[in-house]
Amino acid sequence: xxxxxxxxxxxxxxxxxxxxxxxxxxxxxxxxxxxxxxxxxxxxxxxxxxxxxxxxxxxxxxx
Length: 63
Hints:
Blueprint: H1 2-5, E1 11-15, E2 28-32, H2 40-62
Antiparallel strand pairs: 1-2
């Protein structure tokens, strides 16, 4: 049954396979567990490092 299969899931995502389908949303169901928050400063630091790296490679190619 649906409830016993996804009882330990933190997030349940379900999809309908047809645009004008029957809207039962049981064509593809994914249960995601052990969801952990990503600390925002770490995310911004990684994004910044990526931008710096892209800038450095662009600078090397244009010089």
